[in-house]
Specification:
Layout lengths: L7 H12 L13 E2 L12 H12 L19 H13 L4 E5 L2 H11 L6 E5 L4 H8 L4 E5 L4 H8 L6 E6 L11 H11 L2 E5 L14 H4 L6 E7 L9 E5 L1 H10 L1 H4 L6 H16 L2 H18 L13 E5 L3 H13 L2 E2 L1 E3 L10 E5 L6 H11 L6
Parallel strand pairs: 1-10, 3-4, 3-5, 5-6, 6-7
Antiparallel strand pairs: 2-8, 7-8, 9-12, 11-12
Helix pairs in contact: 2-11, 4-5, 12-14
C-alpha cells in the first residue's frame, strides 16, 4: 500500500492531531541529562547485570536465541518455571506467571478474571493498559476519585457480584501512593478483592524492593499484584503473582499469555540478574532516595513553581495547557535536560505537566541545574 492509497479518514485523523499539537513522533536519545526515563536505579545501564546475564546464558544447557513458541506449545522451559518460583518467593506469593510486558499482564488479567456479573472499581488515574483490559472484560467497570477510599465505599453500595478494587501502588503520572492499608481494610470488611499494579514501585520500595503492597502487609486481600521489569529493573517483561489458583486460571484463560511467543531465554537471565543486583546491595536505592531528598529540598525553596505532592522518583510540575507544557519541555531539552511534557487527554485538561523522573545516577549538580532552568522557563 502506498501513501496515496492510505484511507483518507485516517489521514484526516493524523492531520487533526498535528493541528492540535498532539502528534506523536519517535525521537532518538540526544545525550541529554536523563530526567524522563523509568530507569530509576540505573539498572538498564549497569554492565554488571549485562555481563552476569551473558555468563549464565552462555552456560545454559539450551542457549536458544528465542523461546520458539508460546509457553503452552514449545516456549516453556525449566528456566522460566524456576524463575517464576523464585519471583513468587521474592514477592511473598504462592505463585507467579511471567508475561511479555506489564501491558500484556494487565490485558490478560482484566480480560479474563472479572466475570460478567462482577464489578471493577478502578482509580480514575489508573494506567491505560488496565483500561484496555477492562474493555475486553464482560464485567462492569466504574471509576472512583483518585485515592478516595470514601468514594470507593460509596460506589460499593451499588456494585454487583465480586468487586475488584484496582490501583497503582505508585502512580505513573502524579507520583503519589495509593492508600493501600485503608483499601485492604475495606476489602476485609466487604469481601472485595484488591488488584495492585506495582510497576513503578518494583525494585524501589518495600523489603529489598519487593513492592509497596508487601511493605503495607495487605497481601491477604490481594487477588493479584503485577510487577514489571522494564522500569527500575532495567529489563523487560512482567509477572503476575498471587495464589496457585490464579496462576492456573491465567494459564487457561489469559489470551495475552496463551497466544504470545514467550520471553526469550536471554531476557529471563537478565531479569534474574537484575533481581540479584537488588539483593546484593541497597546502594542504588539509597542513591535514588538521596536524589529525591535533594529534589524535594529545592521544591520547598521554590513555592512559586507548582509541584505535585510526591515523595518518590516521579515528580510533576503543573503547567496547564498543552502548548505551554510542550514549550516548557522544549526549552529544557534545548538546554540539555531531557524532561518530557505530559498532555491532555493523557492527563485531565488543566493538569498538563512536566513529568520529571529521578534516578540514582542524577547528581546534586544535575538537580541544581534543572531548577535553575525551571525558574527561567519563558512564558508563551
Amino acid at each position: 500500500m502506498t501513501d496515496a492509497s492510505f484511507p483518507e479518514k485516517l489521514k484526516i485523523r493524523l492531520r487533526q492531531r498535528a493541528a492540535s499539537g498532539l502528534l506523536r513522533t519517535l525521537k532518538q536519545d540526544e545525550a541529554l541529562i536523563d530526567f524522563c526515563s523509568n530507569d530509576y536505579l540505573g539498572f538498564a545501564r549497569d554492565m554488571r547485570i549485562h555481563h552476569e546475564a551473558i555468563d549464565t546464558f552462555s552456560k545454559s544447557s539450551s542457549p536458544l536465541n528465542g523461546a520458539t513458541g508460546s509457553r503452552l506449545i514449545r516456549g516453556n522451559s525449566r528456566l522460566a518455571q524456576e524463575l517464576e518460583v523464585w519471583l513468587a518467593n521474592f514477592h511473598h506469593a504462592e505463585s507467579a506467571l511471567l508475561f511479555n510486558s506489564g501491558y500484556d499482564a494487565n490485558l490478560g488479567f482484566f480480560s479474563a478474571v472479572p466475570q460478567r456479573d462482577d464489578t471493577i472499581l478502578y482509580d480514575r488515574l489508573i494506567h491505560a493498559s488496565v483500561h484496555d483490559g477492562m474493555r475486553l472484560s464482560h464485567a462492569r467497570s466504574v471509576a472512583f476519585k483518585h485515592n478516595d477510599v470514601n468514594d470507593v465505599r460509596r460506589l460499593m453500595e451499588k456494585a454487583s457480584g465480586q468487586v475488584y478494587i484496582v490501583v497503582e501502588s505508585l502512580y505513573s503520572m502524579d507520583g503519589d501512593r495509593a492508600p493501600l492499608a485503608e483499601l485492604a481494610a475495606l476489602c476485609k470488611e466487604t469481601g472485595a478483592l484488591l488488584v495492585v499494579d506495582e510497576a513503578h514501585a518494583t525494585g524501589i520500595f518495600g523489603p529489598q524492593g519487593a513492592g509497596l503492597s508487601v511493605d503495607e502487609a495487605i497481601l491477604p486481600y490481594c487477588i493479584a499484584r503485577i510487577y514489571t521489569f522494564g522500569k527500575a529493573l532495567g529489563s523487560h517483561g512482567a509477572v503476575v503473582v498471587g495464589s496457585s489458583y490464579l496462576h492456573d486460571y491465567l494459564v487457561n484463560f489469559a489470551r495475552s499469555f496463551i497466544y504470545s511467543t514467550a520471553l526469550p531465554p536471554f531476557e529471563l537471565h537478565t531479569i534474574r540478574s537484575a533481581y540479584s543486583r537488588l539483593l546484593s546491595s541497597n546502594e542504588p536505592q539509597l542513591q535514588l532516595l538521596e536524589t529525591i531528598q535533594v529534589f524535594r529540598s529545592y521544591v520547598d525553596a521554590h513555592p512559586n513553581i507548582r509541584f505535585l505532592p510526591a515523595d518518590g522518583p516521579i515528580q510533576g510540575v503543573l503547567i496547564p495547557g498543552n502548548s505551554k507544557a510542550l514549550h516548557a519541555a522544549a526549552f529544557l531539552q534545548s538546554n540539555g535536560m531531557d524532561v518530557r511534557a505530559i498532555l491532555s487527554p493523557t492527563v485531565p485538561e488543566g493538569m498538563e505537566r512536566l513529568r520529571i523522573c529521578l534516578h540514582s545516577f542524577n547528581t546534586p549538580d544535575d538537580v541544581r541545574k534543572l531548577f535553575e532552568l525551571l525558574e527561567t522557563i519563558p512564558t508563551v
